[in-house]
UniProtKB/TrEMBL annotation:
<dbReference type="InterPro" id="IPR038765">
    <property type="entry name" value="Papain-like_cys_pep_sf"/>
</dbReference>
<dbReference type="Pfam" id="PF08379">
    <property type="entry name" value="Bact_transglu_N"/>
</dbReference>
<feature type="domain" description="Transglutaminase-like">
    <location>
        <begin position="172"/>
        <end position="238"/>
    </location>
</feature>
<keyword id="KW-0645">Protease</keyword>
<dbReference type="GO" id="GO:0006508">
    <property type="term" value="P:proteolysis"/>
</dbReference>
<dbReference type="GO" id="GO:0008233">
    <property type="term" value="F:peptidase activity"/>
</dbReference>
<dbReference type="Pfam" id="PF01841">
    <property type="entry name" value="Transglut_core"/>
</dbReference>
<dbReference type="InterPro" id="IPR013589">
    <property type="entry name" value="Bac_transglu_N"/>
</dbReference>
<dbReference type="InterPro" id="IPR002931">
    <property type="entry name" value="Transglutaminase-like"/>
</dbReference>
<protein>
    <submittedName>
        <fullName>Transglutaminase-like putative cysteine protease</fullName>
    </submittedName>
</protein>
<keyword id="KW-0378">Hydrolase</keyword>
């Protein structure tokens, strides 16, 4: 399936301001399930783009601006080929089929802090919540992860949240609501408390049931590492497993590392007035 993705972010300022470097995570991560066929990033005013890879292998474009501007527009257009199956079969290594299982010494070294919960857990609220999904020991590893993935929305309501940043998982449990990035962060810390290596993912979601003008959005989900199968996508917001209808752009230890656009300007805080984000993801 080929997907056309358009992503435009517009920043408005009360007066022309000097633009600082902007870090752009807008180029998808290629894999055996995802191939980038065409891509273009445009900035208004014009920017020089310097490409690099971060510690996670994400492709980063650093935009530098020579002129001040009252409006900044950063847009990305992509054509990708997505061939992830809707009902994937994961070839988990025999030694990891039953939970709990030990990662190898090399895997433990490489996973490192991807196994450490990102947020404080006062009163072990998140840990106890995660352990409640372990119905027996041993138990089937994939079934356990699917139970956490599917069971999260039983007590958490999805809501669109415009505020920046990510709620701490304990706060999401307390509020019983959160955005996709909050829900993903809760899932990630929960499975880390269970001893799994997990990482945050940002990218795009195709919604086949949406209208043509709103067929998709930016999205946040998680991946868990299982020996043999590798990194497996878990989308607790939609209770889905596998990469179908997902286009991964960046991975990281936490959501703060994988924001699509981050940058600043020289001026007073009140110089910034508002921003607009428009995303379209559609099959072509």
């Amino acid at each position: 399936m080929k997907l056309a993705i358009r992503h435009s972010t517009t920043y408005h300022y009360a007066r022309p301001v000097a633009l600082q470097l902007h870090r752009l995570l807008l180029f998808p991560r290629g894999s055996h399930e995802l191939r980038v066929l065409n891509s273009a990033i445009r900035c208004t005013p014009n920017a020089a783009l310097n490409w690099s890879q971060d510690v996670f292998g994400n492709l980063v474009a650093t935009a530098s601006f020579a002129e001040s501007a009252k409006d900044l527009v950063i847009s990305s257009e992509l054509i990708v080929e997505q061939c992830a199956p809707a009902w994937p079969i994961f070839e988990v290594a025999p030694g990891a089929n039953s939970y709990p299982f030990p990662y190898s010494e090399a895997e433990l070294l490489d996973l490192g802090h991807l196994m450490t919960p990102q947020h404080p857990d006062p009163g072990a609220v998140v840990r106890r919540w995660a352990r409640a999904f372990v119905y027996s020991s041993p138990t089937d590893t994939l079934s356990l992860l699917k139970d956490v993935n599917n069971g999260l929305l039983a007590g958490i309501s999805y809501r669109i949240r415009e505020e920046e940043g990510t709620q701490a998982p304990a706060e999401t449990l307390s509020l019983a609501s959160g955005s996709c990035r909050d829900i993903a962060a809760l899932f990630i810390d929960a499975v880390r408390h269970l001893g799994f290596g997990a990482r945050a993912v940002s990218g795009y979601l195709l919604d086949p049931d949406a209208t043509l003008d709103d067929a998709g959005s930016t999205h946040a989900w998680a991946e868990v590492y299982l020996p043999g199968a590798g990194w497996i996508a878990f989308d607790p917001t939609h209770q889905r497993v596998g990469s179908a209808n997902l286009v991964a752009v960046a991975v990281g230890r936490c959501n703060a590392q994988i924001m699509p656009i981050s940058g600043g300007f020289v001026g007073a805080p009140e110089d910034f007035t508002d921003m607009e984000v428009r995303v379209s993801v559609r099959a072509v």
